[in-house]
Amino acid sequence: MRLVVARCQVDYAGRLTAHLPMATRVLMIKADGSVLVHSDGGSYKPLNWMSPPCTFAEEVDDEGVASWTVTSKTGDTLRILIEEIQHDSSHDLGIDPGLQKDGVEKHLQELLAEHPATLADGLRLVRREYPTPIGPVDLLCRDADGNRVAVEIKRRGEIDGVEQLTRYLELLNRDPLLAPVRGIFAAQLIKPQARTLAEDRGITCAVVDYDALRGLDDPTDRLF
Amino acid sequence: MRLVVARCQVDYAGRLTAHLPMATRVLMIKADGSVLVHSDGGSYKPLNWMSPPCTFAEEVDDEGVASWTVTSKTGDTLRILIEEIQHDSSHDLGIDPGLQKDGVEKHLQELLAEHPATLADGLRLVRREYPTPIGPVDLLCRDADGNRVAVEIKRRGEIDGVEQLTRYLELLNRDPLLAPVRGIFAAQLIKPQARTLAEDRGITCAVVDYDALRGLDDPTDRLF
DNA sequence: TACTCGATTTCGGGG
DNA sequence: CCCCGAAGTCGAGTA
């Protein structure tokens, strides 16, 4: 990892073209040759960058002006003109053990598969990831009356998820062995537009409390 | 902008929880207090981070071990335990003039508005961003027979775009002054699933060549 | 301020 | 290796 602070100008040509006028920025060159151009603001996304795999080349002209050319296999190029270097250092970081996450959609699906009754009284799981020709339904259940219920789970319930569940329901209801199948749209947060569309289509909305679900979960599981 | 290279351990708690075991990493602290944790690989996304607005606090315990706590207003916290610092420097970058882009969806829409006939013979533009209650249609046109055509434009044509166009068409066709309205789904690349869904719904797919369109464009526009 | 939508989205998993 | 869906998505434009 090489860290450079310098006045520079950046030009990118690839899926689009982009230009950064001359200014002072932080340049990060990773071990794999990838480059990140950061300013002192914004979020985690760099102003410009080149993703690996790519090759990094440095050249200096007659007047001592350095320029870097970073090229990917797909023909994308990132060209950086260096006007003045304020800092330049290299560091050996080794390989990173990587990030461990908890609380993503998969966990939500696991918890709801264990506790389907929190979505509707008497709901029982038939199958997780129930396959259809257009992709798997998150949960297929039966309600207290024995009728099938398809559950679509999202962390954030938006219009796309309702459309997705609608497609599943249309397909499932074509199967006389399954029909009638109704739908439950379950999410930690459901946007108003999504709720309106869902209810307009006879789909029930269920707001899910992740922490409460975790509390329901067998406590011996997390004594690790 | 402060740049630190250190052995550290990172814990995040917010919308999810995440943990990074002790290892050597680059820590970037921006002027607004936001923090990025980078390893020597991956792409531009940090392993972990805190977005602004947030507050950065540094403390050192009795044994000289430093720990940082970064807190956002929404209650998210990023905690970094520093074991050993290899590098620590600060730099004044000033404000960045910002990025100039060309070749995004907006430009594609502008070009197609100028050359609608590349989508279908005899197609003429009625209006760009034609308003409907659920949002504007990218292009409303008339075909050679005088019938209306709604055009949805994407850089990458995926299933969402087809759903979006379907909703527009349903609405537009309710208006007896406009109906019948057919649809064209235009994109630089159309995914197979999206094409299947579109054709199933009687929507025409059109693959668009951005560079060729630019070539059609008035050359006097780009003489600089 | 809140919501919607595009993005060089990136990233990870499954076929 | 491609396809697809999730993301602590971020950020810009608009109502």
UniProtKB/TrEMBL annotation, chains A, B:
PANTHER family for the chain: ENDONUCLEASE NUCS (PTHR38814)
Gene3D superfamilies from the UniProt entry: 2.70.180.20, 3.40.1350.10
Domain Endonuclease NucS N-terminal PH-like: 2-97
Alphabetized InterPro entries for the sequence: Endonuclease_NucS, NucS_C, NucS_N, NucS_N_sf, tRNA_endonuc-like_dom_sf
CDD domains per UniProt: NucS-like
Catalytic class of the enzyme: hydrolase
Keyword field: Cytoplasm, DNA-binding, Endonuclease, Hydrolase, Nuclease
Primary subcellular site in the record, as a coarse category: cytoplasm
Molecular-function GO terms, alphabetical: endonuclease activity; hydrolase activity
Function (record text): Cleaves both 3' and 5' ssDNA extremities of branched DNA structures.
NCBIfam families: PRK03298.1
Domain Endonuclease NucS C-terminal: 104-219
Protein's recorded name: Endonuclease NucS
Record family assignment: Belongs to the NucS endonuclease family.
Pfam families per the UniProt record, alphabetical: NucS_C, NucS_N
